[in-house]
Design brief:
The chain has 2 domains: 6-50; 65-186, Umud Fragment, subunit A, CATH 2.10.109. 17% of the residues lie in helices and 30% in strands. It contains 2 helices and 9 strands; from the N terminus they run ααβββββββββ. A 9-stranded mixed β-sheet has the order 2-1-3-4-9-5-6-7-8, with no helix packed on it. β5 (135-140) and β6 (145-153) form a beta hairpin. The radius of gyration is 18 Å and the shape is globular. The chain starts with 10 loop residues before the first helix and ends with a strand. Residues 48-57 have low confidence and may be disordered.
């Protein structure tokens, strides 16, 4: 990217790069601090629609992470509007540069033994949903969240499962505003 002027950058490649950048930026800057200018240029070239142009990895402590409950209302993950989040917690280092990241408290024992009720689950909307046995948080269009294991995604539905009891549920994609990958856990104990 250093050798090409910004207008010649591949827009499609940039669109693929920006979500990964939000997750890995801190590590990239630790290993190669000289690329900070290129990162800022990439973020600016992506524009405000990427949701990342306003967020920087400036020195200093990162902002606290919003924590939501499954019953939380008036949360818009895609626009990073967590004003109605009932609490905040220290942002873990692996989410320092992800402006859309949030945490959710596990409401029950439906995903035991992976998670216990009360565990804090860290969620990164920048991470893809690819791979087997992905745990996700679904955001309902009307408000509220669902924590489950992703089973399948079709053009019209999202299938998720629970481990205890072992069951699958199907949701209309039109009634969901997003599906986001769980990337870490802080155990209750």
């Amino acid at each position: 990217m250093r050798e090409k002027p910004t207008p010649e950058w591949d827009g499609r490649a940039l669109a693929d790069l920006i979500p990964a950048l939000s997750v890995y930026e801190q590590g990239i800057l630790e290993l190669a601090p000289d690329v900070e200018t290129i990162i800022k240029q990439a973020r600016a070239a992506a524009g405000p629609q990427s949701g990342l142009s306003h967020y920087t990895a400036e020195p200093g402590p990162p902002p606290n992470l919003p924590v939501v409950l499954v019953s939380s209302q008036d949360i818009n993950v895609k626009e990073a509007n967590f004003d109605a989040a009932p609490m905040r917690t220290q942002r873990p280092p692996f989410l320092w540069s992800d402006p859309l990241a949030f945490a959710i408290l596990m409401p029950d024992d439906t995903l035991m033994p992976r998670y216990d009720a009360g565990d804090m689950l860290y969620v990164s909307p920048a991470q893809s949903l690819d791979g087997p046995k992905i745990d996700v948080v679904l955001s309902r269009s009307g408000g509220g969240f669902i924590v489950a294991q992703l089973v399948a995604v079709t053009a019209h539905s999202i299938a998720v499962g629970t481990l205890y009891p072992l069951a699958n549920e199907f949701y209309d994609r039109a009634k969901m505003s997003g599906a986001y990958r769980i990337v870490g856990t802080q155990r209750l104990r």
